[in-house]
From TrEMBL:
CDD domains: CYP164-like. It comes from Streptomyces marokkonensis. This is Cytochrome P450. Belongs to the cytochrome P450 family.
Amino acid sequence: MEQTPAATSTVTARRDDDAESVFLDIMRNPASDDPYSHYRELRDMAPALITSDGTLVLTGHAECDAALRHRSLGRGDDMDGFRLAPVPQEQVAEVMATLRRSMAFVDPPHHARLRRPVSSVFTHRQVEGLRPAVVAHADRLLARLDGAAGGDFMEAVAKPLPEIVISDLLGIPESDRASVLPNSQALAALMEPVTDAAVFRAAAEAQRALCDYFAELLARRRARPADDLLSRLGTAAEGGGLSDDEIVSTALLLLGAGIKTTTHLLGNGVRALLDHPEQWERLREDPALIPSAVQELLRYDTPAQLDARVALEPTWFAGVELEPGQTVMTVIGAANRDPSRFPDPERLDVGRGENAHLSYAAGVHFCLGAQLANLEAEVLLQRLVTGAVAIAPAGPARRRIGLGLRGFDTLPVALTR
């Protein structure tokens, strides 16, 4: 059994019926505009909670960070995880069989084998090389919002920008995108703890269609390679020994994770700044703060509110022994506002210094595309604060239903230059 270092064992997990009721209310109200007050309540009552079904729920930063880094807490053999709505098990099995062929759902040592062939595309140098193209895309998309009438920021900018960037990176031809990309939007439902059977079925069907598409595109790229990731992975020398099924699952992962999380980083970030106009003004006066602002926006209202792990073996953590297969739910949105880690955590501060948020997770499963998401957000803010005369709300926003991925369906804004 692996013993968690004493420095990370700051609390002891326990049962608490009142705290569990708060937790379940949070999970059952995933469209709440302010889950953070409920996170505070839960963290104050039980920062490490054992629920009646044996799930360990963590809301403190130290505990979440330690769990995400813990080598005995991983993706395991069963990452269906914590679900409050039943879905057909045969569909879950099909979905998970595909996901387990990608790096995000595999533990060491196989994790490194799957990640290594892809990681070269996401180095600082490679990502920075994409900046001119991202700037050009951002300028073209922002032009859709010019004028007093404005439009929906999500539809005009936040959704298409990462779609274009990831499609270019993977090598999806422009002629295919209109039919391929709508399926990527359905994938987010697979990771939600509250997903009804019909939504999950649609997501599973979308996953199946994308797998078929990427298998066909891989064959095309092998016959006629181009300068894209799928072409690299499709050759024996660059593929690093990945099977075709593993390449397809990797492409699926990058498409789903690279689009939806960045889309909602952009939407949540713009909304937070609209709600705090004094922070917009700080960025206008000092654009050098943009990189720190992106990290603060990730901390303040992260798209990734939850991240789950399972005990891979009998493991001592947070003062209790976890049995193999026991789920550990790290509530990232709560950890990112833990006052023991962040001074004045409820305040948005684009100039905040050291910012150890967990929005990209931690440990071996730290988000591979973090630098690319940062780049897209930095470019967008830079184009807004240096090129726009004003940006303002232009109608009521509508949040998407979900905590596994928190964001907006619509965010009307007016942009004038």
